[in-house]
Structures are given as C-alpha cells and as structure tokens.
Amino acid sequence: MTHFSFSSLLRNAVSGNKNWQRQWPDAEPKAEYDVIIVGAGGHGLGAAYYLAKEHGITNVAVIEKGWLGGGNTGRNTTIIRSNYLYDESARLYDHALDLWEGLSQELNYNVMFSQRGVMMLAHSVHDVQSFKRHLHSNRLNGVDNEWLTPEQAKEYCPPLNIAKDARFPVMGATLQRRGGVARHDAVAWGYARAAAARGVDIIQNCPVTAIRRDASGKVMGVDTPRGFIKAKKVGVSAAGSTSVVMDTAGVRLPLESYPLQALVSEPVKPVFPCVVMSNTVHAYISQSDKGELVIGSGTDQYVSYSQRGGMHLIEHTVSAICEVFPIFTRMRMLRKWGGIVDVTPDRSPIIGKTPVEGLYVNCGWGTGGFKATPGSAHVFAHTIARGEPHPINAPYTLERFTTGRLIDEAAAAAVAH
Amino acid sequence: MLLIRCPYCAVERPEVEFAYAGEAHIARPQDPSALSDEQWKDHLFIRSNPRGTHFERWRHIHGCGRFFNAVRDTVSDKFAMTYKAGLPRPSEAEIGKARS
C-alpha cells in the first residue's frame, strides 16, 4: 500500500499520476471470521480498524449491502461538534472530537478535518437561556464552547444578518471553535484503507439477509447471497436498516427509521467561513472546500426506507437559510438527497451488547452520527473485543429503555445535528 | 410530498395538511401497573419499523382535525389505503385488493 507523503505525491505528480495503486482490495468472503461487522459506513469500518489496531483481532470482515460509505456516511452534512448537554453525551462526543484531531495522521489519509468553528444562533430569550445552560454544562465537562454577542457572531461569520427588525433576530450565539467539518467520503475510505492494510476483509455488494443463531441461542454467523459466513461475534452497524437486520436475530430495538435530507448549491468562491446552525428557524449550513454550500434539512415525519423525502422540507429549509443569510437568496441549488436515519426515543445511540450472546449493536445515531464516527467506532470495537462496554459507552445500553435511565438529548438533537 | 386520503373528509389532500402520529394499533394497556418493566418498555418504545407494509396513524390537522389510520409501504411510500380510527387492522387480502 502506498504511504502518502509529500515525496509520494511529488513522485506520482512527475510520473503523470499514472502509478497510483488501488488503496484496498475488494475481498471475497472467507468461510469463517472472528468478527463480522455488518455495514461498511464510517462507524463499521472504523470499528474494524480499531479491532485490528488496538485489540489485535485481524480476522475481521466488514460486510456491506451496497458500496462502501454509500449510506449515511456519504449523505450527511459533515458537521462535527461535541457541545452536548449531558455528561454521558459530552464524554462520548468529545472522545470522538479528540480522535478527529489526530485522524488524518493516524490513518495516513487526509480526511480534510477543518476546525472552522460551529456557531449556534439564539433567536429568542428561551434560546439564549437554553444555550447558556448548554454552554455552562459544556464548560463543566471540559468541552469548549463560548458565548458571542450578535456583533461578535457577525464578525466571525460576515454573511450573517443581525438586523434588529429581522423576523427572527439574532440575539446571540454559542461558538465551539474546535468543531468544524470533515470530508465524509475520505473518512470511510481512510478507515477502509487502514483496516484492509491490517488484514480486514471488506466485502461490498453483499447484503446480510439473516443473522443465524445456534441451538443455545448464540450467534453462529450471517447468511448472505454469497453463502453462509461463520463468525464468533457479529457487530451490527447498519444505521437505518438496523431494525431489519436485528429482527432476523430475534432482537427488537427501540428504533424508527426516517428519511433525512440535505442539499448543496452550485459551487462558489469562499464566502462562508464556519458552520452555522439555527434550531429556531431550522437551518444549518457550511461551505465545502469545493465551494458548494452544504445545507441540512429536517427529517420527514413518517417512517420510511425510501432514501428520499418531501420537497416541502427543502423549501422550508431554504427559506430559513434565506432568512438568516439574505446574501444567498439568489443562490441556485444543485442537488438534494436523502438518507435513512435510525432514531431512538431519547435521541441518543445504543452501543453495546444485546440479549443474544456474541451479537453487538451500534445504532440509533439518528440525525447526528457522522460527528461521532471515530469515537463510536473506537468504543464499539472495545465492546466487541472485550465483551464488555468501554466506560464511555457503558451508559448507552439497550437496557436503559427498561430501567428508564435515558440520556434524553432530544433537545439537542431535535433539529440540527 | 405525499398525497393522503382523509377517510372522514373523503378527499385526497397534500401531506402538509396532515400530522403523522406514529404506529397504529398500539393499545394502551388496560392495567398499566400490572405490567413488568420489560412489558412497559415494549409498549412505550418498541416499534415494528418494517421495511414494507406499515400501519400508521395520521391526523388531518388542517382539515377535520381527526385521527385516522393508514397502510403505507415504507419503501415506495405509496399508501394502500386509509381507514377510520377504531376499525380493525385490515387483512392482507384487503390490503392487496386496495393496492390493485
């Protein structure tokens, strides 16, 4: 495998970029693995990578029904932040942010992580109070977050409209400077490459049709159109399709799947320096390095696996963007798409063991899983390897829905993520 | 945007007139205090979330304001039928007939 460095770039540049090698092989399934991960998104590929790197388990396969990173990993708006309210969330998302900071170096693959700051706008007295509550909670948890006046917000993000007579005037904002964006495809590719280099098989276009259990109830392996694949342990990381996959093992989860849409504009010169989110008018926006404005919409109201959503949500989102950034009223939009997000009742993920021995699940990331990719993958690998959760994901059990010990981040996750 | 037929108004209207109200035919337990924590979790949180035929409730908020039930395919998003609240869950034969 090519090691990416300045000299390798230079060498390939002078040879006309004709000698780049394939970064990972497309594997055929073996008869048996120690661990099978279902779903080759960032979370699944990352888990395979950390299993190989930190736990020495290299006889691992990642099985994907479509193509690598073609699900929600390639469909999100790439926002990364960790300013969540509750202690459990702060630990989980800040763990991810810590890993993001060294990820390009670690994977030797540029994930284009850019800490350009995530700003959340307050438009009402209620917003101001609730954001300040978040901010103080964040500071107690060692998560950076600061308060900006409307003028300071405008200085940080010049296109922002802070007119007093706006329909939803900006009354202030919080800013997490360590937050930002990353190139989502590169995250999947980087993990795939690094995992494959350590011996992990990545098997694409191979849907898992069932999880098979033996007479004692323990996991035996998975059924696929390419035959039965034996495995000692199976970790399901299948986002919107998790319910369907887990149902074949007889495990019912507190999940519902909804379409979530996003859209991009035509590419323009750099105009937008950070990420801005507004829960009140329901908009979040950033500019990609390619120049497109990347805009996130809300989920549709109904359960669906259709990977598309209602046009009226896009209209609502675009009108919100124009409200906060009148500069964009004549911007043309290029394309929109949908992904299927699996949402839990408390809007926090489930990462851990299941009632079935040898079966593990990492799901329920709802509308905000991308930002957690490295942290989620890291603790999920730990859970699979040790058979016990990492202290960071210990609260994120399936049992919390029985005990009532929920991690109710609904307020943080209800809109923008 | 979905087109939804309200069985009370007997008209087809765009989705923005309606509010989705979750999975249908989930009856509140007669005697909640008799339920174990596990059963209570199933009632509150576990949903079928199928890839295919889904029974769901909608409310015609900008019309008659009433709740009704619908059968929709969650892959194509196409409605097979809608029916009034309180009616039993339609059989597969009835749904098949409505689809054809």
Written account of the structure:
- The complex is a heterodimer of chains A (417) and B (100).
- Chain A contains eleven helices and 18 strands.
- With 417 residues, chain A is an alpha/beta fold.
- Chain A has a domain at 114-180 and 256-343: D-Amino Acid Oxidase, subunit A, domain 2 (D-Amino Acid Oxidase, Chain A, domain 2, 2-Layer Sandwich).
- A four-stranded antiparallel beta sheet of chain B has the order 3-4-5-6. Chain B has a two-stranded antiparallel ribbon with strand order 1-2.
- Chain B has a single domain (3-99), classed as Folate-binding fold, CATH 3.30.2270.
- Chain B is an alpha+beta fold and 100 residues long.
- Classes of the chains: A alpha/beta (417), B alpha+beta (100).
- The A-B interface holds A 241, 243-244, 252-257, 301-306, 310-312, 345, 401-404 and B 1-2, 15-16, 19-20, 23, 37-38, 40-42, 44-47, 49-51, 54, 56, 72, 74-77.
Mean pLDDT of chain A: 95
Q: Give the oligomer, counting copies of the same chain as homo and different chains as hetero.
A: heterodimer
Query: What is Rg of chain B?
Result: 15 Å
Our estimate of the beta-strand percent of chain A is 15-25%
Largest sheet of chain A, described in full? 8 strands, mixed
Approximately how much beta-strand content do the residues of chain B carry? 25-35%
How many runs of DSSP E, i.e. beta strands of chain B?
A: 6
Number of individual domains of chain B: 1
Please, what is the CATH homologous superfamily of the domain at 114-180 and 256-343 in chain A?
D-Amino Acid Oxidase, subunit A, domain 2
Query: Which segments of chain A are poorly predicted (pLDDT under 50) over 5 or more consecutive residues?
Result: 413-417
CATH architecture of chain B: 2-Layer Sandwich
Number of separate strands of chain A = 18
Q: Report the end-to-end length of chain A measured between terminal Cα atoms.
A: 36 Å
